[in-house]
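Example 3.2
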Amino acid sequence: MNLVNITDLNLIVFLVSKGHEIKNSKLDGNRSIIYFERNPKLRSDIIKFANGTESINITEYQATEQRVKTLLYQNKNYK
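Structure, written as tokens:
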């Protein structure tokens, strides 16, 4: 499986909110690296995020952000 690693929290939350599945996560020093499967939709959604051309439901975003932060916190405790 071809994976893309991403470290930006806002982008990670956006991608998960858009339906992309986290495939793996690792701790690298003090930062967590999140891996997604490389595919055309992922690339398209990254571009939409960067351009600010895609909107998502704020409630979904906030719920997803909490779940992702929990994963990142667990990475730091799961050495």
